[in-house]
Write a structure and sequence with these properties.
Elements (H helix, E strand, L loop, with lengths): L6 E4 L2 E4 L10 H5 L2 E3 L2 E6 L2 E5 L1 H14 L8 H15 L5 E9 L13 E9 L9 E5 L20 H13 L4 E5 L5 E4 L3 E6 L2 E4 L10 H12 L3 E4 L4 H5 L3 E6 L3 E8 L2 E2 L7 H13 L11 E3 L4
Parallel strand pairs: 8-9, 8-15, 12-13
Antiparallel strand pairs: 1-2, 1-7, 3-6, 4-5, 4-6, 5-17, 6-7, 9-10, 11-12, 11-14, 14-15, 15-16
Helix pairs in contact: 2-3
Length: 305
């Protein structure tokens, strides 16, 4: 069984990895006219479980609609294609999946009305996004893009220049990751993650109006928290609240549940992952491999027998 990708799905066909190419005049390369998703599949006991596949593909289509890009395939077609890619690659390890809808080659102008729209699904072996558990983070000087300039609700390629700038700044300053504030000065999210704050047993997270991407892992964690009996509040969070939190953690497809141990040189609580964070990390790790029956509907098995 090979763990190296052999094929990519492109516009309805399986294409050998080495032949999955686009033209240098691809509009998305020049102008960022693309939307994408990040999806995980977890390997456990000979099975691959894709986590919340349909929800991710629905968000992909919604992102394309926001950017006025005409999606050529339905949610169900994209889900079927994803399973096909994983089966064809015969993965026997956990996998990261990257579906992308992008504007193809055409003229040099901004208007892409006459350009083709292309779709691809890529899958790669993947384990951990961060090299360690527990992060030192930095509040970035870059503000999160407001909805009046670029739509944060869309998982658009162009939006991620904002995240790249914040990440590069944080890494150069010696931190592991960045937190961005919104244009009002309230906490928005990490460079590629949603953020949660725990104080006095209450779990808070910035609302949609704080220029966040409406994360699918965020939604999953909110559901798990409520099922565990915790109170979850979506509200505006000030920067100074980060410094006095009992616990802080990121969530995201790549990051999963990642504790934040320090913000701007200030240690969070005792500098170790908090009780609630650890509880959620452990539960989430069981959910994604099918060990929690209550949440099996979130999983799509690839090699189902």
């Amino acid at each position: 069984m090979s763990e190296k990708p052999s094929v990519v799905w492109m516009d309805g066909e399986l294409v050998p990895w080495e032949e999955a190419k686009v033209h240098i005049m691809t509009h998305a390369l020049h102008y960022g006219s693309a939307v994408f998703e990040g999806i995980r599949a977890y390997h456990h006991n000979g099975e691959l479980y894709i986590f919340r596949l349909k929800e991710h593909m629905k968000r992909l289509i919604d992102s394309a609609k926001i950017l006025d890009i005409s999606a050529k395939y339905s949610v169900d077609q994209l889900c079927e294609a994803t399973v096909r890619v994983l089966r064809e690659n015969r993965f026997q390890t956990s996998v990261y999946i990257r579906p992308i809808i992008f504007v193809g080659a055409g003229g040099i102008g901004l208007d892409f009305s006459n350009n083709p729209v292309q779709t691809a699904i890529i899958a790669l072996p993947f384990s951990k996004y961060f090299a360690k558990t527990g992060l030192r983070v930095h509040v970035s000087s870059w503000r999160r893009i407001p909805d009046s300039s670029l739509p944060p609700k869309a998982k658009a390629a162009a939006n991620y220049v904002n995240s790249i700038l914040a990440t590069r700044e944080a890494k150069k300053a010696g931190y592991d990751e960045a937190i961005l504030l919104d244009h009002h000065g309230y906490v928005s999210e990490g460079a590629g993650e949603n953020l949660f704050l725990v104080k006095d047993g209450i779990i808070s997270t910035p609302p949609i109006t704080a220029s966040i991407l409406e994360g699918i892992t965020r939604n999953s964690i909110m559901t798990l928290c409520r099922d565990l009996g915790y109170r979850v509040v979506e509200r505006m969070i000030s920067r100074t609240e980060l410094y006095t939190a009992d616990e802080l953690f990121f969530t995201g497809t790549a990051a999963e549940v990642q504790p934040i141990l320090e913000v701007d040189g200030r240690r969070i609580a005792d500098g170790n992952p908090g009780r609630i964070t650890k509880q959620l990390m452990e539960l989430y790790s069981r959910v994604v491999i099918g060990e929690e029956e209550k949440y099996r509907s979130w999983l799509t098995p690839v090699y189902s027998r």
